[in-house]
Amino acid sequence: MKKNTLVLTGGVVIAGAILFLLMAATPGSSGVELPLKELLAKQAVHKDDFVTVEGLLIENSIKWNADKIELKFDVQDAEGNKMHVEYDGVKPDNFSEGVIVILQGYLGKNDTFTAESVKTRCPSKYEGQDMENYDPETHKDKLNKPSSEE
Q1: Domain residue ranges in the chain
Q2: Nearest CA to 88 among 73, 74, 75, 71?
Q3: Which residue in 27, 71, 81, 130 has the fewest CB atoms around it within 10 Å?
């Protein structure tokens, strides 16, 4: 009986530890995804929330300090709402004007966002052409053409 109790107790402790680690490792799952305009309008409501927000990078606002590994920049949405961002981490690749920046972190004082994660994407680079201009015959020709002819 003593051995069974020990095994059961050990199993409960291990299961509890695994559950704790899963919850601690996924703060984004308990966060909120908001448009920039709404985040700025409702700062008091979301001041303690882990937030995901995106905006267009304003290139002339970038201040990169490689010695401190500190990045500061501004983002804006399509309506011109601006927010200052501070990030302690490596500057992402493709960090230039017109890039959409996806931020995860917390909103601080005076429209300053403290980012824990900064990612970039450039949708125009990866978007396909309009379907109105799509010619299925061209696609069929390319599929049927042997690779040596291309």
Answers
A1: 31-122
A2: 71
A3: 130
